[in-house]
Amino acid sequence: MVDSDGVTHLTDAPNDPRYVPLSGSSGTESGWLRVPESGLKGGAFAREIRESAERHGVSPQLVEAVVRAESAFNPWAVSRKGARGLMQLMPQTANALGVRDSFNPGQNIDGGVRHLRQLIDRYPGNLAFAVAAYNAGAGAVDAYGGIPPFPETQQYVKKVLEHGVPPQVAAKAEPPPPEIYRYEDADGTLTFSNVPPPAASKKIR
């Protein structure tokens, strides 16, 4: 039923002659309850994602990828651990970010983007670490010195980087391998180290 204000009403107990049966067998099948597949391709949250991303200097595609991975664009999503909304903010994180209503799409996205911006700044030049920290927490990333060895986090990082940044940028998200030096002591002992040794040493990688 559509009322005089143009608002659509759905019910399983119609009490007004203006209600008409849906053509499909369910609200989801008919399209009324379908979650948008993409926030930037005509989805309901495209404007919020774009505006928050631009305001905080984060790629809109990256924000979209995080929202997709976190909640599949469901603003009412609640995880087993209590994370809420589109960008799955934990209550304490939301409180620290000044988000009063985590189920409000605009507030949730803006808070999530600010949190993501903080993590990007925390791990400059390493987007993979920032994305991992969004999922597992910065403490875990710091403790392991990189992406934690959690299957969920590793899959999460892969999924977000695949959808959130161009392939050539994602390829640069991992840090380059460390330089390895080879040098020989006076007694003939060979030493391999990532610490630059005396000037006579030879870099092998």
Question: Main traits of this protein?
Answer:
3-stranded antiparallel sheet; mainly alpha; elongated; Lysozyme; 5% strand; 205 residues
Structure characterization notes:
The protein has 205 residues and is mainly α. The protein folds into three domains: 1-34, no CATH class; 46-171, Lysozyme (Orthogonal Bundle); 176-205, no CATH class. Helix content is 42%, strand content 5%. It has nine helices and three strands, in the order αααααααααβββ. It has helices spanning 27-30, 46-56, 60-71, 91-96, 105-122, 127-136, 138-144, 151-164, 167-171, and strands at residues 181-184, 190-193, 202-203. The protein has a three-stranded antiparallel beta sheet, with no helix packed on it. Helix 2 packs parallel to helix 5 (105-122), helix 5 packs across helix 6 and helix 6 crosses helix 7. The protein is elongated, with a radius of gyration of 24 Å.
